[in-house]
Amino acid sequence: MPWDANLFTRILYGGRVSLTVGLLVVFISILIGVPIGALAGYYGGRVDGILMRITDAFLSLPSFLVLILLSSILREVEAPLFERNNVLTISLVIGVFA
Question: N- or C-end of the chain: fewer Cβ atoms within 10 A?
Fold first, then answer.
């Protein structure tokens, strides 16, 4: 099969969106996870137990269904940021549940 420059260009162009979503999700996850982990590590004991139960509750939810539900709810919000399922909305939804 010969090398097709048009196909290669399409793959690279599609990869930009995937990499953008991936990097935004990691950044959002770090912004949420590091403070929670720091609080749990610093205070320990009761605070650690409460934060772990909240984390367990998030992990027990079926993430794919919650992501679909949350993205459809955010689409109905009257805010310019959530008008349609754009890269930022999808990254925010995935990042919160990561």
Answer: N
Write the DSSP string, 14-80: HHHHHHHHHHHHHHHHHHHHHHHHHHHHHH-HHHHHHHHHHHHHHHHS-HHHHHHHHHHHHHTSSSG
Torsion angle (degrees, nearest 10) of CA 30, 98, 80, 19: 80
Cβ contact 95:32 at 8 Å: yes
What is the spatial distance between Cα 95 and Cα 23, in angstroms, rounded to a whole number?
10
- Cα 58 to chain center, whole Å? 13
Tell me if 17 sits within 8 A of 88, measured CB to CB.
no
pLDDT of residue 27: 94
**d(C-alpha 18, C-alpha 1), whole Å:** 26
